[in-house]
Write a structure and sequence with these properties.
P-loop_NTPase; 275 residues; Serine kinase; 7 helices; alpha+beta; 8-stranded mixed β-sheet; 23% helix; globular
Length: 275
């Protein structure tokens, strides 16, 4: 179908009015059908097999059931949510599960385009990942993903065309529209370029807070542990050797002070390396 839209290499069905936040689709990509419903939660434990998955969205007060054969994700939520909330962040774990089934790799990371190619930005919550990506976006760098990076055949598949900031970051950067509480916190949503397409993975950035500015390339022996710690699905990969492939590209540790006055200098130091 001409003009179809997608995220993470999945053509979506079942969500209305979200095309502006999706990216161009390859007609060969599979279709994921999303079924939002309102009802009582019933899951007491999470389960992921090679045929189906069922897990709890604790931060959003809902259950998710994913079926591999029909490639359908049914959300049972205690209240209604806008369709945009499913694109980001509710579909994040579903994306990781489906990526496993499709023999793709999914990591908890964001991603941006530098002159050398696409760099994934790893990091736990509060590492400043989304703030850095919003600043890169403001400087004209295409941002492919905010919280999940999906790699297929060495190509990073773009996620939804948005990223979410916390209040202080949105205020400091003078960007983002308040969308209220989604999941566990208030979010300020930054709209990204919707026409971004897949690009080659050339490296990973590991942001950390510190007392000084420093960008250092990790030794090959360190890379594997960093990537394993950031897998989007916390289980043994179907193909452990594929994590080795992801670790073939450089991983740089990006250390900078937790200070807004140092933010531009910190980003310049990073771009001087990854560019």
């Amino acid at each position: 179908m001409a003009g179809e839209r997608a995220q993470y290499g999945l053509r979506l069905r079942g969500l209305d009015g979200v095309d502006a936040l999706l990216r161009p689709a390859d007609p060969a990509w599979p279709v994921l059908t999303v079924r939002p419903t309102v009802g009582a939660r019933s899951l007491t434990a999470d389960e992921v097999t090679e045929e189906r998955a069922a897990y709890r969205l604790e931060r959003a007060d809902g259950d998710v059931h994913v079926d591999r054969v029909s490639l359908t994700a049914t959300f049972v939520m205690t209240r209604e949510h806008p369709p945009e909330a499913y694109l980001h962040p509710f579909l994040s774990l579903t994306t990781a599960v489906v990526s496993r089934w499709l023999d793709r790799d999914a990591l908890h990371a964001g991603a941006f385009l530098a002159p050398s190619g696409v760099w994934g930005v790893l990091g736990a919550r509060e590492a400043g990942k989304s703030t850095a990506l919003a600043t890169l976006h403001a400087r004209g760098h295409a941002v492919l993903a905010d919280d999940v990076v999906v790699v297929d055949g060495g190509q990073v598949l773009p996620g939804p065309a948005c990223l979410d900031l916390r209040e202080e970051a949105a205020r400091r950067l003078a960007t983002g529209d308040g969308i209220g509480v989604v999941g566990a916190r208030e979010r300020w949503r930054v709209r990204l370029d919707p026409e971004v397409r897949p690009g080659p993975l050339v490296g990973w950035v590991l942001p950390q807070w510190g007392d000084e500015h420093r960008v250092e390339v990790l030794r090959p022996a360190e890379r594997l542990g960093v990537l394993m710690a950031n897998l989007a699905l916390s289980r043994v990969p179907r193909r452990p050797e594929r994590v080795m492939d992801l670790a073939r590209v450089p991983v740089v540790r990006w250390v900078r002070p937790r200070s807004w006055s140092e933010a531009d200098r910190a980003l310049d130091s990073l771009l001087a390396v990854v560019g």
